[in-house]
Amino acid sequence: MSAFWPVWLPDPSILLALAVVGATSASLGCFAVLRRQSLLGDTLAHAALPGIGLAFWLTEAKSPLVLLLGAMATGLLGAALLFALKHASRLKEDAALGLVLSTFFGVGIVILTRLQNEPEASQSGLDHFIYGQAAYLTWDHARLMLGLGMVVLVCLALTYKECKLLSFDPAFAASLGLPRRRLEALLAGLTVVGVMLSLRAVGVVLTVALLIGPAAAARQWTQRLSTMMGLAIAFGISSSWLGAIWSQTADATPTGPAIVLVASVLLVVSILVAPGRGLWWHYLRLRQHRRDVAAENVLADFYRHGERQGDRTAPMPAAELADQRGLRFPPLERTMRDLCRRGLAESAGDGWRLTEAGADEAARVMRSHRLWELYLARRLDLPLDHVHRDAEEMEHALPSEIVAELDAHLGHPRVDPHGHPIPRLAAEPRPTEAKEGSTGHGS
Predict the structure, then answer these.
(1) What are the residues whose beta carbons fall under 8 Å from the beta carbon of 84, sequence distance 6 or more?
(2) Which of helix, strand or coil describes residue 441?
(3) 84: three-class secondary structure by DSSP
(4) Which of 81, 114, 164, 359 could share a disulfide with 312, CB 3.0–4.6 Å?
């Protein structure tokens, strides 16, 4: 290592090898995640273990190429067996995965245990393939990984459109005449190669984490496959490098598990805070929805109060509003503060009143409610004592376009099933002159 190279950084050969492993595994992992085959990598990694032992047993060679070729041979055999079980038997895919994984892993453990008694095996490094040993990667490993990694990435680039279609809509891909089974076999074969590359770095046990973790984390941030693959590659390389640096600077910290832990942290952070899919943003949206529902319910109460008073902006005492909605005063006050802040309500003595904008918004809410009540009564023949509850749940979910279609479908009615007038908004068609039957039945 150069004298100018920072001591806290791993050797450049290790960083290069880990970058290839992170990028290749993450790219393949995107298709595994989208196709719901997250355990495929784990199965193929365990299927590779007998090949490593057999390659050393037969050749007594410690060359990384020989060991990886042996791993690739039994990995491809495992993929072929899995493919056959999936398409030529009645076994479910998860059962086939478990059968192949356990069988090959058992055979691999038997072979490696047998080799422990061989003096030539003591320095072969076969045990490194179980838990990984990234700290011992050399330039020979790096060059081999780089060559195989480029083959995987080029194949993915050449078949990107076909693999994308297979991942999102396999039935449509088959209808277009795409060779579905050949594409599945290609992805399985490329996954075998990707798994082989990561065996020396993170081992058989942890390979699936490096394959799935960065891809699953990237999935939280985007809806586009191209963006997902770019993010997954970035996450995979970052996880590999940060884990290697952590292992380099902390005593008794193995590199493979450190890489997996970093990838897991990235996944957890993505699940929590990624916009659109993150749990934190889901919580914020849910809280805002609850606030919107509470505000619309209060607006509906103001509208009914205005109907009774003959003044749509008539003030309403706080005690009456709280009693009508069944709310305690603190949450009601929070709702009214929100409406006042939005310019929909204002204080009036010991209560509040709607502004003109608030009265228009209250009319919109009540219109949606009463149209939905009428639809439930007339089209679904629901009893009148059921339609109010169901309509109050739906009125908050109906967008304005659906409400307009509902209004047109019902013939622009004047009244709801209970005989209450349905509010009309500006620039709407004139309602039908015939009064809709207050019983709520008929077409």
Answers:
(1) none
(2) coil
(3) helix
(4) 359
